[in-house]
Amino acid sequence: MDYRNFGRTGVKVSPLCLGCMMFGGETNPKDSYAIIDRAIDAGINFLDVANVYNRGRSEEVTGEALKRNGKRERIFLSTKVHGTMADDDPNAQGNSRRHIIEQCNSSLRRLQTDYIDLYQIHRPQSDTPIDETLRAFDDLIHAGKVRYIGASTFAAWQFTESLWVAKELGLNRFVSEQPPYNILDRRIERELIPMTQTYGVALIPWSPLAGGMLTGKYSKEWKASGTARYNRAKPLWSQRLTDAAFIAVEALKPIAEMKACPLSQLSLAWCVQQPGVTSPIVGPRTMAQLEDNLKALDIAITDDDRRSIDTVVPPGRMVSPYYEADFGPHLFTW
Description:
Elements: E1 4-5, E2 12-13, E3 17-19, H1 29-41, E4 46-48, H2 57-69, E5 76-81, H3 97-111, E6 116-121, H4 130-142, E7 146-152, H5 156-169, E8 174-178, H6 192-199, E9 202-203, H7 220-225, H8 229-232, H9 235-239, H10 243-258, H11 263-272, E10 281-282, H12 287-295, H13 303-312
Helix pairs in contact: 1-2, 2-3, 3-4, 10-13
């Protein structure tokens, strides 16, 4: 495994991060334990979860798995805070000091650990000053409960503001950003990636397979059937199934065929090897999906491959909107 520096920190992480969102939900505990064990055996040392995934159950299952295999000390364990954790409490959400400290303690309990390696704000929140959020995080670091802090789906200006505030107030700064990034939505190449490269920020993209679109298994006919998860629980997902996205997927398939690999592996390998990317987050539901993800690490993306992909979706462009429209409470219903 070719481990990478986690931004400007001294931590080394695997080039793939195991996302644990499915565990304790669509993936039962027994299968979740097996997937986590297989990922660790393959060399993955970076796991990412969030308090809101299955309302804490994903954290519980992840913590149970690490306790069972006894490998917690080897893992760079990440979780997140922001989403709604109780429908009848207006303070059980957001980026306030109250919510952050309360949920950190709850996450530690669910994960059965004394510390969180990377604690992240799941989304920005305009009505909570960033200094309140950073002060809470800084106190958690000084208390030994958190080692590093990061952000998720911040705009470049929001992340830069956080760096300035941390410097002005003498607080620990965010060391990572977790944005959506895939071949179908490359807009972070305009400002966010140059910002992270300038300031030594680790970039850990989510949805590198565009929620499954880049596996090639979805089609316009499938969309019209109205039977899939895009059309069931999350209207936002169905909004991403644009005609341009389906056209792009069909154009990418011959590139994958030329490399004798599935489209899923080509798309993930492309993300892993893009400039500025530290460790894309994969979220397998099954062992077969994990095995497919791992094989992407054996695929070399050449300059010719990049040029071919650029003709389908040019740098900085998008054909399916992932980096927007998901800041509301509806996002946090996993």
